[in-house]
Design brief:
The chain has a single domain, classed as Four Helix Bundle (Hemerythrin (Met), subunit A) (Up-down Bundle). It is 68% helix and 0% strand. The longest helix is centred in the first third of the chain and has 22 residues. Helix 2 packs across helix 4 and helix 2 packs parallel to helix 6. The chain has 6 helices and no strands.
């Protein structure tokens, strides 16, 4: 049995996180904008999987499932799936680096306004696109 309430909870929480991303952006916290944008995309795409009655794995990038299960997704979204896959992959690659960095990378020095603008824009697009389809 699947908890259908999680579909709407995930998407609602993703929408609320967009406000947090705007605040981080206003404070020039570029790495944190990238990291939070990834979380927004992850929650949103997991809402889509649940909405489509698909199993939601405990991974941060669900692009492989979106690709493999296209036929199970709402028909109206099929034109957007490739873009969602690419966004999920790209932001997943930055997830840990944007948050923790590494011995040779300091997140606050590495990420810039362009990175943050792109990540924020992608997260907003995913949320807005899915919000048109995932309705109570």
């Amino acid at each position: 049995m699947q908890n259908r309430g999680l579909v709407f909870d995930y998407l609602d929480r993703a929408k609320k996180r967009l406000f947090a991303v705007e605040t981080l952006f206003e404070h020039a916290a570029w790495a944190d904008v990238v990291r939070e944008s990834q979380a927004i995309v992850e929650l949103s795409l997991k809402a889509l999987l649940r909405f489509s009655n698909l199993t939601v794995p405990r991974v941060h990038d669900v692009s492989g499932i979106l690709d493999a299960e296209r036929a199970q997704l709402p028909q109206v979204l099929l034109k957007d799936v490739d873009r969602m896959i690419e966004i999920s992959k790209r932001l997943r690659r930055d997830r840990e680096l944007a948050f923790y960095g590494s011995e040779d990378l300091t997140p606050s020095e590495f990420y810039n306004k362009k990175d943050a603008t792109e990540a924020k824009s992608q997260a907003r697009w995913v949320v807005e696109t899915l919000s048109k389809v995932i309705v109570k």
